[in-house]
């Protein structure tokens, strides 16, 4: 934390995180008059979409839109109606303080005391950490088949992973690519039997076991091939690949919570059925920090709307007239 003097800021509601869920929650809460503050993060405000090129499956943009442009529009719309966006990281929280408020402390030294909190910090896809992965991200390297599979119609595709997510990605992409090669570092899948059988019975999917991708190569048009190493024999090879889909899991951004909210075995925040309420009254969660199934911008935005409405209902229930003065 910086050495600046600590400040205290009182709010009705604080949104931790940004992206489609955070900005949508901010829009709804701002229009309801709660003047939310959005702690959007210091380095990556806007979430994963700021690192995405063309987005063609977000409703309302028939010609597609660049990921960063979509996030800028969401940011500006929330701000227009009174949301305050702060580019700061949360370093600690206290959701059960004796004063009945929630306390959120940021890296800059500000502590927000608030009646309600919405957590929308998302999740990060696990990376391979190999040469070319970052360089060709969005230009051949992808972490979402549903988002980007369309761009690789009739082209060779590689999928990396061995769990259910990798099986689902490979099966989905088999309908687009000229071929799909599934690469797994072990000699058997971690995936469920039904998912593995579906992949193994698909004539357009080839499986390479006991192998890892060690590099992604390409040119100014994007990815072209990957280097492989067999972890048993040490043999190296190269495989043509216009699309490289990494499906080795994701990590929810919940470390700053320090166990203050209930999570599942993978670290995703658990919420009550059919709503966004967490294990702590007055704390709500939305987007990829909750959702490890769909992980789409539009579903995150929808959940952000639900979290805002749940937060509004909570705020109304605890005080009809005594709102915090900003």
TrEMBL record:
InterPro entries: FAD/NAD-bd_sf, FAD/NAD-binding_dom, Ferredoxin-NADP_redctase_2, Pyr_nucl-diS_OxRdtase_2_AS, Thioredox_Rdtase. Its EC number is 1.8.1.9. It catalyses: [thioredoxin]-dithiol + NADP(+) = [thioredoxin]-disulfide + NADPH + H(+). Binds 1 FAD per subunit. GO terms for biological process: removal of superoxide radicals. Its cofactor is FAD. Homodimer. The lineage of its organism: Bacteria, Bacillati, Actinomycetota, Actinomycetes, Bifidobacteriales. Residues 12-304 form the FAD/NAD(P)-binding domain. It comes from Bifidobacterium fermentum. Gene3D superfamilies: FAD/NAD(P)-binding domain. One of its GO terms (molecular function) is thioredoxin-disulfide reductase (NADPH) activity. The gene is trxB. Belongs to the class-II pyridine nucleotide-disulfide oxidoreductase family. GO terms for cellular component: cytoplasm. This is Thioredoxin reductase. The keyword Coiled coil does not apply. Keywords: Disulfide bond, FAD, Flavoprotein, NADP, Oxidoreductase, Redox-active center. The keyword Cell wall biogenesis/degradation does not apply.
């Amino acid at each position: 934390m910086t050495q600046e003097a600590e400040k205290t800021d009182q709010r009705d509601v604080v949104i931790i995180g940004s992206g489609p869920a955070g900005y949508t929650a901010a829009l709804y809460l701002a229009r309801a008059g709660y003047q939310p503050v959005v702690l959007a993060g210091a380095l990556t405000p806007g979430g994963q979409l700021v690192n995405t090129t063309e987005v063609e499956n977000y409703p309302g943009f028939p010609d597609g839109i660049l990921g960063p442009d979509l996030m800028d529009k969401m940011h500006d719309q929330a701000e227009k109606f009174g949301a305050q966006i702060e580019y700061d990281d949360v370093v600690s929280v206290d959701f059960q303080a004796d004063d009945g408020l929630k306390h959120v402390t940021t890296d800059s030294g500000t502590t927000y005391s608030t009646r309600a909190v919405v957590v929308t910090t998302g999740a990060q896809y696990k990376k391979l950490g190999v040469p070319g992965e970052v360089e060709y991200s969005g230009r051949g390297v992808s972490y979402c088949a549903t988002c980007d599979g369309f761009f690789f119609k009739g082209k060779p595709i590689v999928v990396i992973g061995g769990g259910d997510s990798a099986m689902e990605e490979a099966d989905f992409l088999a309908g687009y690519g000229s071929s799909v090669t599934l690469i797994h570092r072990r000699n058997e899948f971690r995936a469920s039997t039904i998912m593995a059988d579906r992949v193994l019975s698909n004539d357009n999917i080839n499986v390479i076991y006991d192998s890892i991708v060690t590099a992604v190569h390409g040119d100014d048009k994007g990815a072209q091939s990957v280097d492989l190493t067999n972890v048993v024999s040490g043999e190296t090879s190269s495989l043509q690949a216009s699309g490289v889909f990494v499906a080795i899991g994701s990590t929810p951004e919940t470390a700053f919570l320090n166990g203050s909210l209930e999570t599942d075995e993978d670290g995703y925040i658990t919420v009550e059925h059919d709503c966004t309420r967490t294990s702590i009254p007055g704390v709500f969660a939305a987007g990829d920090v909750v959702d490890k199934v769909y992980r789409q911008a539009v579903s995150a935005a929808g959940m952000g709307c639900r979290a805002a409405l749940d937060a509004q209902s909570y705020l109304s229930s605890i005080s009809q007239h005594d709102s915090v003065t900003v």
